[in-house]
Predict the structure.
Amino acid sequence: MILRNLIALAALAAQVTPYTPPPRDPRNWPTPVMDSVPPALPRLRPGAVLVLSKTNGFRDPQQIAAAKTVLTTLVRSQSRDVFETENAAIVNPQDLARFSAIVFNSTSGDIFTPAQRAAFRSWVERGGGVVLLHGAGGDPDYAWRWWPETLIGAQFIGHTGRPKQFQQATIEVDRSHPATRSLPAKWVRTEEWYSFDRIPTGHGTRILATVDETSYDPFPERVRMGKPHPIVWARCIGRGRMFFSSLGHKAETYAEPLHQTLIAGAIRWAVRREARGCGR
């Protein structure tokens, strides 16, 4: 009887269709495209800012659109020209020379060709300013290792997950930097909290904001970093400046006055409107 039951169970198992995960929503996972022909640029005054929103990985259409609107407004409020595009072919020596800073609006995936990588790295090291927002530092792996290892200084390893993906927590802010001086020392807000494989160091790194893990539940356990848990920082890459903020998952966060204050301060610092060299 036991042998007969085992045979019956084996036959039944053989008939079970293997699990197939649901297809990825193309709105969130667009087909990757490597751009080769750059967009035509209008006349731009010196000190212009490029907003790049290219996604070859995960994409949140609502967040990208909301951030685009706010970013262009913030740049113009600083009396600077701004050009927004999703065409990564703009990253070439001739076009990059027309910009003082680039804001990466939750870019994702492998977006640059080898030539574009070389052009971007050279532009940064020679003094370009970079502002990386949320997903621009949130890929679980990078084909171009220079991006997490040198530009950002840490590898994203995950964020708070469902059902606790979005939680209110307390951010502890270093207000001695031009990008953060107008923020409160204790900033309470709701976010999807990013975690990283290390605390970034070297390259003149300044940790500008950490999240207090005692103020929320770092779930799952692998996203627990302990103290400190950095979420905003700045670095020097050659003569260039890099500012990274992991904040800004939801579209509505770009309407938050304090979040706008942080981004505006980051842009001012990246274009060298404030501070000498790569210091305060």
The helical segments are 2-15, 61-77, 93-96, 114-125, 146-152, 257-270.
